[in-house]
Specification:
Elements: E1 3-6, E2 12-18, E3 22-25, H1 30-41, E4 46-49, H2 60-77, E5 82-88, H3 95-104, E6 107-112, H4 134-142, E7 146-149, H5 164-182, E8 188-190, H6 196-203, E9 210-214, H7 216-220, H8 243-253, E10 260-262, H9 271-274, H10 290-300, H11 308-320, E11 330-335, E12 345-346, E13 353-354, E14 370-372
The structure holds zinc ion.
Length: 376
């Protein structure tokens, strides 16, 4: 159980949590990677870094080299995060490569992106899950490799275009169930699920082979929040959905059902790509304050003192067969409105910054209400 301390009036003062894990973080490349990696690693037990860099990580060798770069930053800062990798799904992946991945014990999954370019950062350079060959998926089952799936498609099977709000819904009702049924033993993680339909799909598989990560932004916000002064910070894919969807996500996340767990999809962009015209703004929420944001969502649901640690710290580790944090390996979240959103960070050698979700210079900021120290 998370250790919650309260003031005399019953309000929450702090929450002590086993060090949480994050199955879905983007740390990018070059100077941006150097700037953001410390924040993504801080206070994190296990982290899977995403492969949609340029060029995408499509081979075991490329993925291991990338992991080495991230670990170099980790070791320089003395952070204890277990950094894990994933391969970008493409038609060059063979059963032999799946075996090689498994042998590394460090590349634990294949990440599937939408087939079309422009649907999200780095999409359109591979194949989606549903086009993956049966012999590769059989090798994944035999070698305990997970498929992490960005489940969206922008046209129906008859060619009818789908608006952004409908893309995940259609995928979850008309695409993914066929793969699920054809390969019942395949371990599928629906990444950043956002809809009633995604929750239903996971709910409908009692075997536990289908799980779902839920981001803090989709637990806290709906499409109307794009009108906030910091609305561009919320622009991500899958796009924010409707109140009925958010209610389904909150219910799943706080239910104690261990098939639903945290996964941030924290995805930084330099501010020149994020600020300005909403339609042109890059997709991706930069979330150095992810633990605070999840705390706020669970606090609002009245579930901080019960299932919060399963969602944040245990369910993903258990599902992947990774060690849980030791009893003394904890993170302290304090109720603190003064420093709840960290300041933008500089990118070395560039006249640009990375701006966290909810931050504005004018003080028109999101108030998270909780904060966590990041020591590095
Ligand atoms: Zn992502």
């Amino acid at each position: 159980m998370p250790l919650v301390t309260t003031a005399d009036d019953g309000s929450v003062k702090s929450v002590k949590l086993p060090r949480p894990s994050n199955p879905h973080g983007h740390v990018r490349d070059g100077a941006l990677r150097e700037a953001v990696t410390p924040w993504v690693l801080a206070n994190t037990k296990h982290l899977i870094v995403m492969p949609n860099v340029d060029p995408p990580l499509k081979t075991v060798e490329a993925s291991l080299t990338y992991l080495g770069e991230v670990e170099r930053i980790r070791d320089r800062l003395g952070l204890g995060t277990n950094v894990l990798g994933t391969l970008y799904n493409h038609d060059g992946i063979t059963p032999k490569m799946i075996e090689q991945m498994a042998a590394t014990k460090r590349i634990v999954s294949v990440k599937c992106y939408p087939a079309k370019a422009g649907m999200t950062t780095g999409s359109g350079q591979g194949i989606p899950l549903e086009q993956t060959s049966d012999d590769v998926l059989r090798a994944a089952i035999d070698n305990n490799i997970v498929y992490q799936v960005h489940g969206e498609v922008d046209t129906m099977k008859d060619g009818t275009p789908l608006e952004p709000a409908m893309r995940e819904r259609y995928y979850m009702t008309d695409v993914l169930p066929y793969v699920r049924d054809a390969h019942p033993d395949l371990r599928i993680s629906v990444e950043h699920g956002t809809t009633v339909q995604a929750v239903r799909l996971v709910d409908g598989d009692p075997s536990g082979k289908t799980v779902m990560t839920i981001t803090p932004q989709h637990l806290l916000f709906v499409d109307d929040d794009f009108m906030q002064p910091w609305g561009n910070d919320l622009k991500c894919m899958p796009i924010l959905k409707w109140p009925t969807d958010r209610a389904a996500l909150i219910k799943a996340a706080t239910s104690g059902d261990r098939r639903f767990f945290a996964g941030t999809d924290t995805a930084p962009h330099p501010s020149r790509k994020k600020r300005g015209d909403f339609q042109l703004a890059a997709n991706g929420c930069w979330l150095p304050h992810w633990i605070s944001l999840y705390t706020q969502a669970f606090h609002a649901a009245g579930k901080l003192d019960s299932v919060f640690d399963d969602f944040m710290s245990y369910s993903f580790a258990d599902w992947m067969g990774l060690p849980r944090p030791e009893p003394d390996d904890t993170v302290l979240v304090t109720c603190d409105t003064a420093h709840d959103i960290p300041a933008p960070i500089n990118i070395e050698g560039e006249d640009d910054v990375v701006i966290p979700l909810g931050w504005t210079e004018t003080g028109n900021r999101l108030r998270v209400g909780f904060s966590v120290r990041a020591d590095f």
